Amino acid sequence: MTTFRSFINGSFVDSASGKTAPNINPANTTDVIGTIELASREEARRAVESAYDAFRGWKATPAPARGKFIGRAARLMEDRKEELSAAITREEGKTIGEARGEVQRAINVVEFCAGESRRMNGETIPSELPANFAYTIKEPHGVVACITPWNFPIAIPAWKLAPALVAGNTVVFKPATLTPLTATLLTEIFNEAGLPAGVLNLVLGSGSEAGDEIVSHPAVKAISFTGSTETGLKLYTQVAPRGVKVQAEMGGKNPVVVLEDCDMALAVESTAQGAFGSTGQRCTATSRAVVINSIADEFVEKIVTRAKSFRLGAGDDSKTDIGPSVDEGQLNTVLKYIDVGREDGAELLCGGKKAEGDGLDNGFFVEPTVFDRVTRDMRIAREEIFGPVLAVMRARDFDEAMLIANDSEYGLSSSVFTNDANSMYRFIDEIESGMTHVNSPTTGGEAHIPFGGVKNTGLGAREQGSTSLDFYTELKVVYVDYTGRKREGNLY
Ligand code: NAD
Q: Is the CB of 450 under 6 A from ligand 1?
């Protein structure tokens, strides 16, 4: 059985904490993948210190040379694509097709960032004084903590680590404890790409101990976090007195709005993919379908038929459409919300329980679930469930649909189904979300396009694409006076 250990200053190290956690396949709990040696506070501190010590040398390495390491990592990921995909399926549970898609996204992001290393340009700005020159330089912060969730165990770390490193920061990477295998493989790949010791450190440990120690360390100058809103806002508050930069991508409650003139088959299929694909465990998953009354009965009938057609199973079986919830805790959360939905008076149309039989008994499977006549005050309309549960909310007209769609503390993704150009543009103007889609699911995104949310979903600069380096760099503004004379007069 594999032992997963932290990677500090260029080596995998044993933990002195004596604390461990098992890594279990959520589709089959008899498959124990390995044991994690959970890092102690002291080990987390050492990881930050090793990143601190490596910073000067890494910052002094020219950006295109840093990019070479990142480009090499992309090629190694490509070579190990199948191994990475199988690891994700085994420890996170998503289907092998979804895992391959995630790995490809990660490769694309890493490639993109390698290219960005040759474009770390500042600006030259004409001065209002004669014989003066002003320009800007992009500089790294120092040690950056990258704290990641379990649901995209390679893509999210890749889209934080690659830009942080290209920008010249050194990194302490703290993944979720549920997905240590993928985190270990990614760390191995960056190490094999030749990163100097200390530039990238991996801490496998709990959020409340190792994570807390990392974010509390005075050498950590910036934190890029993805996870729940509760944890993200807590971290933000915790480090604010130190003036630490925080970028946080957090929870979602993403709506689709289905208008009368939509292509119904497309709306149903896209909503089903968004709600039930990856077991509803995407931050961009569709959790609310806001449907105009006059077409709601037809939509509901079709989405229920589609929900019932999905085949549940282990992600490594090519016939499986939907894998398990990631662990028992997440399974229980989903089942609890299904009870809450019933108690609050929503109409349960299909699913609603743990799936059993047919090889599912040893896994954390939940039947794809559809609730109808969900109202804005119900908890299943307001709180993130993170499982295969769709709330259908009926609306009188476009205006009421927008009121419902925007009545959320979250604002990550959204989509509209319509063939009317005016409605489409009105929707784009009025919807409160960081990303929106037209006639396609709420999920998905491309490596070279910015990603992130508004309201209680997102804090700080957008990740990925043209904005990916913004969070990881500071601008230094330089004024050069080449008159060789004392400045006359008073420039402000
Ligand atoms: P989580 O908030 O429980 O944990 C996220 C990470 O934070 C983990 O590595 C955890 O160990 C760490 N952590 C927890 N407490 C900490 C502390 N006190 N100090 C430092 N680190 C700490 O989230 P999760 O359950 O792993 O992931 C699911 C959540 O992630 C969902 O809410 C989902 O919407 C969100 N998510 C958001 C996006 C996005 O881009 N908006 C993407 C993926 C997932």
A: no
